[in-house]
Amino acid sequence: MAKIILCCMNYRPEIISTGKYTFELCEYLAGRGHDVEVITTAPHYPGWKTFSGYSAWRYSSERLHGVKVWRIPMYLNEAAAGLARLLMPLSWSIMATPVLLWRALWKKPAIIIAVQPTITNAPSVVLASFLCGARPIQHVQDLEIDTALAVGHVRAGKGVIRFVFAVERWIMRRFDRVITISSQMRSRLIAKGLAPDRIKIVRNWVDTELVYPLARPSSYREELGISPETFVVQYSGQMGRKQALNVIIRAAEQMLGDARFLFLLAGNGPMRPELEAAATRLPNIRLLPLQPTERLGEFLNLADCHILPQEQGVSELVLPSKLGGMLASGKRILITADEDSELADFLGGAAIFTPPGDVDAVMRALQDMIDTPDTSASLRIERTQALDASTLLPAFERALGI
């Protein structure tokens, strides 16, 4: 069995996005007998605010589900925009470097894994791997720089952008292997100069024992006082700029006179205050906090339709982590994404697609759904099987070469 160090900015008890998949992977590997340590920071996502019981300003450690976890100080800013967007991961990467070097030299791991985001910790992982003789491996969940430019988190001149991409290429070529989650991400990595034979694809998975279609109405309907006749359009997860949640607000505004629809949003993030303001004036929008993992199946089954809005140009860069749960619930899915995106390639007829930012198309799609039978359920079941954790976690272990 192998000794493994994994560096990531997000980890348990975060329950969505990168943190969820990272802790599930680490706990799976530990359960397989591997000696796993994680270097991370205080849990803070999606609100960019430290969870209760943790501190973002001190070093600490704990053991969670068979994994040794080292918590590193990090600067946090709830706005998560502009200069803060750069300073937050950079602060963690700088503060984590001494601990990473200490653990690498002391533990002598077989591999050290860097999770992107963030790429700012990649140089330290490469250095630590060189010093201790480990194989450096990068897990690319998000092409951080490309996405930041696409959604406008970072603005810079062409010369600066070329320099940043050149540094990124140099860093990523230092990794023995890169594991990513989609074919289009793989293509982007090849375009950045990585050798195709060093890139593996392992998609993000879903626990089909936790999320599956229920034969009865979700208990959330009665708890939240939602009538059986109401068509629930649900979004659950990070509330940030790249999620294009303004589309939901605008659709709710234009559908205010149609009492059949309710937009139910659960999550946190920089756009939460804007969504709260919209909900105060739009009775067809309702907000909830993120729901506990143990009730995820019930909550996702509350939806009549899951909505997954994406900004123009972003859908080709990311394969949203929430997709697996949406599919596994068996409910219909509406996605605003580019026609040539990975989402469209992967899902095909298992979801309905509308152009990014086209509110009228979203409205027409929802109105069609409420009046027509669901004919794509079998396709969603088929796509869910391709994302089953019982298949993909062993595939990830094989991709590590251990």
TrEMBL record:
GO terms for molecular function: hexosyltransferase activity. Residues 19-205 form the Glycosyltransferase subfamily 4-like N-terminal domain. Gene3D superfamilies: Glycogen Phosphorylase B. It comes from the Bacteria. This is WcaI family glycosyltransferase. It comes from Sphingomonas liriopis.
